[in-house]
Amino acid sequence: MTTTQQTDLLQTPIEFLKGVGEKRGVVLRKEFNIQTFNDLLYYFPYRHIDKSHVYHVSDIVNDGGYILLRGKIHDVRIVGQMRAMRLTAMFSDETGSIELVWFNGIRWVSDVLRSRTEFVIFGKPTLFNGKWNITHPELIDPNQQESSPISLRFQPMYNTSETAKKKSLDSKAIARLTANLLTQVKDVIPETMPREMVEELHLMTLRDALVNIHYPEDNQKLSQATLRLKFDELFFTQLKMLKLKLINTNRFEGFVFEKVGHYFNTFYKECLPFDLTNAQKRVLREIRGDVGSGHQMNRLLQGDVGSGKTIIAVFSMLLAIDNGYQACIMAPTEILATQHYEKISRQLEPLGLRVEFLSGSTKVSQRRRILADLRDGQVNILIGTHALIEDNVVFSKLGLVVIDEQHRFGVEQRAKLWRKSGPIPPHILVMTATPIPRTLAMTLYGDLDVSVIDELPAGRKPIVTQHYYEKDRLKVFGFMKQQIAEGRQVYVVYPLIQESEAMDLLDLQAGYEAIERSFPPPTYSIGVVHGRMKAEEKDFIMDHFKKNEIQILLSTTVIEVGIDVPNATVMVIENAERFGLSQLHQLRGRVGRGGNQSYCILMSKYELSNEGRKRLDAMVETNDGFEIANFDLQLRGPGDIQGTRQSGMLDFKIADLTKDEKLVAYTRNYAQQILEKDPDLSLPEHKRLAETLEKMMQRDTNWSVIS
Ligand code: ADP
Ligand code: MG
C-alpha cells in the first residue's frame, strides 16, 4: 500500500469503525475529540490490568489491586429484601475461600452461576468485617483468550465520562473498539522515523508501539511502547521548535539597529533614576547583539517578579527609535497596559517622544486619530492590549514588538505580529515573570533565545511570608494598622473561582464589611476592584491607590500580574489554599517593590488538603520563583502551569514533562544534531523526518504562517 492509502484509512471518520456507528460516533467526537481512526489509535489507556497472572486466594494482600482467580463457585444465595437485596456466593480454590457479592443484575448473574461451577473471576478484593470479599467480580470465559487476534493478557483501562457511559461507552466498550481498530489497521500504520534511526536508538517500531500501548504482550513490551511514543512526541516537538528557530535566525532577515543614539543615551544618562543591575546590563547587551546582527530577534526575557524587566523594554524601544523605527508593547490586561502606558510615557516625557495607548475600550474618535498617526509614523511607541494585533492597526515602520507576560499569549498571536512590518518581521522581545523550569522552557519556548535577569535591584529586602488561620485575624488586622500608621499600603486579595463569580463577589463583599468595621473611615480609606467592574472604574480606584489616597485595596485576582505600587508593603491573601502556587507567587510579587520591608500573609482555613498545605509551606519557605516553579511542576504537572494550556504546546498525550526531563534533553540534542548536519532535512536519509514534520506543520495552520 502507498503512504496515501495508509493515511486515508487512518483518516476514516470514526463512525465507520466496526462497533461505532452514528450515535456512538457523535459521543466519541464530542466527549473525547475522537474524529478519526487515527484519533482513536492515539487515545491511550491510562493503565492496564494484568490478566496474565492467576492468583491464589492465599496470595491476597491488602491494597493488591485487581486480580484474576481460578476456582469453583458454590453456596449461591440471595440475602436481604427489596433495596437491600443482594446475591452472595463463595469462591474457593485449593488455597482458601472468599465471598463474592452482587448488588445489581442479580437475576442475570444467578443464571450464569447456575450454568456451571468452574470460573475465572476478575476483581478487586476488599476487607469487610475482617473477611475478604469481591463485589461485582467479572466472570470470565476461560476460552476467550484463544479466540482473539491481539493479546488480551492485559486489559487496557480508558478514561471515559458519565455522558459516554450512559451511551454504553465505558472503558470496556472503548477497549473493544480499540481491539477492532488495531485488528483492522495494524498493518498499515506508517513509520514516522527513518528505519536507521529507529534501529540506532533501539526503539520499537511505531506500529508495534501503537499495538502494545493498547494491548501489550508483556510488561517489557509495554514500557518499550511507552518509550517509543514519548520519544515521538518529544522528538518531533523539539525538531519543530528548533527548525523554527533556525528559520527565524537564518532565513528571516532582521532590521539592523546599528547605532545607540540620542534617545537611548539621553535616557541612560539623564532620566534613569537608578543604576541598572548587572543582570539588566547583560540582558541589554544580548539584545543589542541580536538587533545588530541583521537577523530577526526572537528573545524571551525571563525574570522573577520585581526584577526590572520593564526598563529593558524601554531601552530596547529607544534603540528602535534611535534607528528610525516604531515600537510597541502588548500587555495581557487593560490594567497592565494602562500602567505601562502611564509609567513609560512619564519616563519618556523629557525626550519628547510620542507614546500612545490603544485598547478595546479606546473611544472611536481617539482610535481613529491614533491609527492615522501611527500609519504616518508620528507615533513612536504604541502601548496596549490584544487590540494591537487587529488588522486595522498599521504601523509606518514597526521595528520592535515587546510582549509582556507572555504566558497569556499563544505562539499564534506572536506570529500575527510578524506581519505588521512588511516583508521583514519586527524584532520580538517576550517578557515573562513566570519562572519556567528548564524542561518546560526548552519545550515551550524552544524557538526563542532566552535571557534571564537573575538578580533583583539592590536594596530589596526579601519578603517575609507568614501563614495564619482565621483565629489570628485580629493579630493580622493589628499588623495592617501598624504598617498603615507607618505610611504603607495593603492589598487584600480574594480568590476568583470561575464557576461561581457570584460567590466570589460574596466573599469579597463579606471581606469588605469585616475590614470596614475594623478600619473605619475617615481614618482609613478602602478601595475595591474586581473583574466585573468597567475598565474606567478599575482605573479610577487604582489611580487613587497609586497616589496613596487609598490605604487598603481589596480585590479579586485582577491585580495578579505586573501592578507596581512600591509603597504597598503588605499582601494579604484570603483563602490562600484555593490559589495555585505560581499565582500565589505572582501575588506576593506585588509587594517588596520599594525599599521597605514587605510582608505576604497567607490566610487559610484550618483543615487543609495535603497538597494545599504543601503549597503554603513552600511559599513560607522560599521567595525564589524558580524553586516555586519546580515545586509547582512536581505538584501539578505541566498542563496546569499557568497559561501553558492555552498555548496548546504542551498537549502531550503520553510524555510527561515533569517526569521525562531526561528524555526532553535527549530528544532535543538529537534533533539539534540532525539539524546541524542537515538544516533543511533534505538528505535522503531524513526524507521521512521531513514528511512527518510537514504533516505536523500542516495540522497546525498557525505554523504555516511562519514557515
Ligand atoms: P518586573 O520585572 O516584575 O516587570 P518592573 O519592571 O515592574 O518589574 O520593576 C519593578 C520595580 O523596580 C519598578 O518600580 C522599577 O522602576 C524598579 N527597578 C527596575 N530596575 C531597577 C534597578 N536597577 N534599581 C532599582 N529599581 C529598579
Ligand atoms: Mg512587569
Ligands, ions, cofactors: adenosine-5'-diphosphate, magnesium ion
Number of helices: 26
Average per-residue pLDDT, rounded, comes to 86
Protein structure class: alpha/beta
CATH superfamily of the largest domain: P-loop containing nucleotide triphosphate hydrolases
Rg (C-alpha, Å): 31 Å
How are the secondary structure elements laid out?
Layout: H1 3-10, H2 21-32, H3 37-41, E1 47-50, E2 54-55, E3 67-79, E4 86-93, E5 96-102, H4 106-115, E6 118-123, E7 126-128, E8 131-135, E9 138-140, E10 154-157, H5 162-166, H6 171-185, H7 195-200, H8 206-214, H9 219-251, H10 262-271, H11 278-291, E11 298-303, H12 310-322, E12 326-330, H13 334-348, E13 355-358, H14 364-376, E14 381-384, E15 398-404, H15 411-418, E16 427-432, H16 438-444, E17 449-453, E18 464-469, H17 473-485, E19 489-493, H18 501-518, E20 526-529, H19 535-546, E21 552-555, E22 568-573, H20 581-588, E23 599-604, H21 610-621, H22 625-636, H23 644-647, H24 661-677, H25 687-699, H26 701-706
Parallel strand pairs: 2-3, 5-8, 11-16, 11-17, 12-14, 12-15, 13-14, 15-16, 18-23, 19-21, 19-22, 20-21, 22-23
Antiparallel strand pairs: 1-10, 3-4, 3-6, 4-5, 6-9, 7-8
Helix pairs in contact: 8-9, 9-24, 10-12, 11-12, 21-22
Bound molecules: adenosine-5'-diphosphate (ADP) and magnesium ion.
